[in-house]
Specification:
The protein is an alpha+beta fold. The chain has one domain. A hairpin with a 2-residue loop joins strand 14 and strand 15. The structure holds adenosine-5'-diphosphate and magnesium ion (2 copies). Adenosine-5'-diphosphate binds next to strand 6, strand 10 and strand 12.
Length: 429
């Protein structure tokens, strides 16, 4: 650990006095706690990891202490969750809107095009999804200058970390129960995180609505799953399928189509999946569409490209992808935009351009692979939402727990799995 810990500036007033030794002690305790409570991920360094259970595990990267976050914004984010759930549901029913909004993207992005093909097939046979289950996560950053809560994106497929985020909250509560007095922090300020329980309950409720006691819940994970037609499946939960890498051959596309054609409840259905794509989020943010769907923000007009070329650090260029590590920033973005402009290329339709958000920077102690690192960091808050509907009856529509991710402020991307961020929790102020 570097010595800066003694003279760092932090958002916690009492941190000035934190002794090097105390931090080391807390880190040690946190690492032991993580191993004992399953706050772990597969260790890429071990070849057998992921194949042999219990082999090749390492603690998940975490922030040592929870991140200060204003209670009012926290509440606002929680209150938005059911509204976004409802929005996704309504958009998913507007097949024409999805097809039209993505028609230009379809020409230049094969992945989106394949998803749209499945969607068209469902429209052709007039397939109705009567029971609809959405497990979403809306991500935000708190803009430092305006203090506004700004949405980064809305995830409708494979919303990650409902499990580990709960554990990090527990870890932080545990550490504050033991060291809170000395740190001037109170574990009661860390909100309970029930994401994993509520996600499980939502899946179980969907299964119940399906109303066949012999049916099972199938969870689609990465590394191909081909044998999907043998069972009566009530709910198919996709924890994979959001990136082209998950479809290495035609058989995966065929499987996705079969699932979509089946009577199983899909989480997400192809319409929910498409409704969550970045291009659709951009469409929804256009003023007139927004009025229709009652939502705000983002941008898309022709001057904006010139503006982004002039001020590349004020924008983020995002492809139609999920999972982190895909965005283009700064000079790279400028180069790409200049090239497109020269060529007059259509490729831009595969991307959205978004104003860059600059959240407040504060010192964080981050632990990755047993190594402690203190740095200036920024955070992104995700609020999980669950939605279940059977025909006209909304059975479930609620926010359910949160994910806080913290990353060094010099890093552009934010994914934990992608190696940019650490798991964190919230300290309400
Ligand atoms: P993905 O679906 O791959 O997670 P995101 O839109 O969440 O895509 O972008 C990945 C990361 O890039 C985010 O977690 C965040 O750290 C950063 N990011 C995305 N959009 C912005 C933005 N407008 N301003 C600042 N950072 C952003
Ligand atoms: Mg995403
Ligand atoms: Mg994201």
């Amino acid at each position: 650990m570097d010595d800066q810990i003694n003279n760092s500036e932090t958002s916690y007033s009492s941190w000035d006095g934190i002794l090097h030794k105390l931090v080391q002690k807390i880190v040690y305790e946190a690492l032991v706690w993580s191993s004992l409570h399953g706050l772990v991920v597969g260790d890429k360094a071990d070849q057998r990891s992921g194949e042999v259970p219990g082999v090749g595990l390492v603690h998940a990267p975490f922030a040592l202490l929870p991140k200060s976050f204003p209670r009012t914004h926290w509440q606002q984010a929680c209150e938005l969750a059911p509204i976004f759930n409802e929005l996704v549901d309504r958009v998913s029913l507007d097949g024409k809107f999805l097809q039209e909004s993505l028609s230009r993207t379809k020409k230049v992005d094969t992945f989106t095009s394949r998803l749209l093909d499945i969607h068209s097939k469902m429209l052709e046979i007039n397939k109705k999804e009567e029971i609809r289950l959405g497990l979403h996560r809306s991500d935000y950053m708190l803009d430092a200058q305006t203090k506004d809560l700004l949405q980064i994106e809305l995830n409708t497929i494979s919303s990650s970390f409902p499990g580990l985020s709960c554990l990090v909250g527990k870890l932080h509560k545990y550490l504050l129960d033991h060291y809170g007095n000395r740190l001037g922090l109170d574990s009661a300020q860390v909100p309970e995180n029930t994401a994993v329980i509520q996600y499980a309950e939502a899946l179980a409720s969907a299964w119940k609505e399906f109303n066949d006691s012999r049916a099972v819940i199938m969870i689609v994970v990465q590394k191909d799953e081909r044998n999907i037609c043998d069972q009566v499946v009530a709910v198919v939960y996709f924890r994979a399928g959001y990136t082209p890498n998950d479809y290495p051959s035609e058989s995966e596309w065929h499987a996705r189509l079969l699932v979509e054609q089946s009577s199983a409840i899909k989480c997400p259905s192809i319409s929910y999946h498409l409704a969550g794509t970045k291009k659709i989020q951009q469409e929804l943010a256009r003023a007139n569409v927004l009025e229709r769907q009652e939502l705000y923000d983002f941008l898309d007009n022709s001057n904006v490209i010139d503006n982004a070329i002039e001020r590349p650090d004020s924008y983020v260029l995002k492809p139609q992808r999920e999972g982190g590590g895909n965005n283009i920033y700064g000079d790279d973005m400028k180069e790409v935009l200049l090239k497109w402009k020269r060529k007059g290329s259509d490729e831009l339709s595969a991307y959205i351009l978004m104003q860059r958000i600059f959240p407040a920077v504060s010192r964080s102690i981050m632990v990755r692979n047993g190594v402690v690192h203190q740095d200036n960091a920024i955070s992104e808050l995700g609020i999980y939402g669950a939605y279940l509907r059977n025909k006209e009856k909304v059975i479930l529509n609620d926010h359910c727990g949160y994910l806080m991710r913290t990353k060094v402020s010099s890093s552009n991307e934010g994914g934990v799995a992608a190696g940019f961020a650490v798991l964190d929790s919230v300290y309400l102020t």
